[in-house]
Amino acid sequence: MSDDLTHRHAAVALEPDVFRAIGHRLVDDLADLVARVPDRPLTRDEPPGVIREALGLTGPLPEQGTDPAALLAAITPRLFAHSLFNAHPRFFGYITASPTPIGVFGDFLAAALNANVGSWTLSPAATEVEAQTVRWLAEFIGYPGECGGLLVSGGNMANIVGFLAARAAGTPWDVRSTGIGAGGGRHLLAYASAETHTWVQKAADIAGLGTQAIRWIPTGRDQRMDTTALVGAIEADRAAGHVPLIVIGTAGSVSTGVVDPLRAIATICADRRIWFHVDGAYGGFAAAVADPDDDLRALARADSVAVDPHKWLYAPLEAGCALVRDPEALRRAFSYHPPYYHFDEHVTNYVDYGPQNSRGFRALKVWLAMRQAGAAGYRQAIRDDIALSKAMATAVSGEAELELVTQHLSIATFRFVPADLRASAGEPAVASYLNDLNRRLLDRIQRSGELFVSNAVVDGRYVLRACIVNFHTSLADVRAVPAAAVALGRALDREHRATLAG
Ligand SMILES: Cc1ncc(COP(=O)(O)O)c(C=O)c1O
């Protein structure tokens, strides 16, 4: 026990003046470091041991504490020196956005408030901000604003929330209390295309259905779900006495950004009374700029939609959002009322709407950026990312040694094909060589620190994949990609052939 609990001094406390001084210094350091990101290597090719050493991560927990000002002043530049920067204008990997500066402030402010957004009583302002954020997110993509929904950690959780809502709504017995095995041999089944993100396996697993309950519906050559095959699978399962629970359509696939035939899927689900869920984690926000007859717009007909502000709204990680047409569907999937929580029933208690109990104020960073940019500002940013991706595709097409494979939304895929292999690229031995070459090329590009792309496999072809959810990127950045890929690709091809020959 401390000697003096009248004037307690906790080891983690900071006097207001010290807090102010450290905070000012941190903001100054961040302003400098962030401004230099475009001129620094995007990432360094360092092994884990070097990073541990540089950041002092090898020793045991020190018995004695340390001066917080000195600690932050030392660790901040080191974190910057050894991190990968998705705020770099040439970061095109996966679907990881550059963070909004106002969102950075939002997380800082939210941490200071430390609202527990599980119950309204504990977070009156934060709960109301979250409710408006959910409404705005829905309205931005054309989904009914009076839907239910809540902020979660990201796309996986947003989709899983939708999946669990479907399970509670569509199981013909009380699945929450008796479990999925209580159906007398009837299986609960989910329908998704092979292009669906791996969240669907996690959802089927977590929901107790098991991954074998996923009916993998084939796609056409355009990577979109084959709806004739979908209907066939549903009818066969119903005929066998099983329960088709949920059909998942993807609005912007993780590999190529392709959008499933959402309009047709919506009709199939409505006719058969099956829950229609749209994974719009990546492409959902593009519905805000889509033509009226675009399939993206049909996400408005879904029973639930997952969107991911930490993707195309550039929120700092983490921020996903589950939207559910019927708000009561979330309560039916998640709510319990234990005696130790005495919450007012007439206000929103988010603990009743999702899997989390204590919840942080994730909505603030999203809400602030929506206020800063407005709907028009966000529509423009999304349009610009799409236009830049198309410009990259055009630049790729202009390089004789690059093959453009796909371009959808803000994702372009392409591969390096040496000039003398172009004509024979379909032969098995050449196809295998090209896959290997492009796998190595990806590795070299990622290690270069100049730009960052990730990969996809399209029709058996291993391809490089550039996704632009980056408001720092401009035309010069996208035009730099093809030239860099060709230069590195040529060098690798030479080395590779020399090794094979030797
Ligand atoms: C289509 C799609 N769904 C779900 C996810 C998972 O999102 P998160 O990584 O935020 O959990 C991703 C991630 O890229 C995605 O592209």
CATH architecture of the largest domain: 3-Layer(aba) Sandwich
List each distinct ligand once.
pyridoxal-5'-phosphate
Put simply, the count of helices is: 15
Tally of individual domains: 3
N-to-C terminal Cα separation, in Å?
72 Å
Helical percent range? 40-55%
Strand content: 5-15%
Tally of extended strands? 11
Structural class: alpha/beta
Please identify which CATH superfamily of the largest domain we are dealing with: Type I PLP-dependent aspartate aminotransferase-like (Major domain)
Q: Would you tell me which CATH topology of the largest domain applies? A: Aspartate Aminotransferase, domain 2
From the alpha carbons, calculate the radius of gyration and give it in angstroms. Answer: 25 Å
The averaged pLDDT comes out at 96
Largest sheet: 7 strands, mixed
Strand order of the largest sheet: 1-7-6-5-4-2-3
SSE arrangement, N to C: HHHHHEHHEHEHEHEEHEHHEEHEEH
Any idea what the shape is?
globular
